[in-house]
Amino acid sequence: MRFRALTPIFTEYIPAEPEQEALYISMHFATAVHLCACGCGTKVVTPLGPQDWVLTFDGTVTLRPSVGNGQQPCRSHYCVRNDRIDWLPPISIAATRAAGARDRAVHVRAHTRLTWKPRWRRTWDRVRRTISSGGRVQRRGV
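Given the sequence above, the corresponding C-alpha cells read:
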C-alpha cells in the first residue's frame, strides 16, 4: 500500500523500529529515516548535508533530491514535498547506477577540496618546516 504523506518527527535518536508513515529527523546526527513509502517496510536512511539530501522545514518538511530505492525489489521513486509524497516512475537499474556514481564523485570532490592546498601554501609550509628544523630538510611520508 503506497503512502500519501509522511508525518515529521524531530528526535535526537532514530528508533530501531520506525513506524510507517513517519519521517524521523535527527538534526544532531544530520539524518532522516523513514520506512519506504511503497509499504515494503525497507528502512530508508537519508543523510543530510550539502552533498547529500537537503531538508527544509517551514511547518512542513521537504526532502530534496528525490528518494530512489533502486537497490530494493520495489524500485520505489518519490519526492517528499510539504509532508506529501509525490510519486515518480520506478527508478531503473541504469539510473540507480548513475546516481551512485554521481554521489561517490561528489563526495570525493568534497573531500579533495578539504585536503588539497594550493602550490604557494605547500611551498610556504615546506619553507617553515625547513626553518624550524634549523636548515635540515625534513621529508614527510618517507
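The chain has two domains: 7-91, 92-134. Try to locate this feature in the C-alpha cell string yourself.
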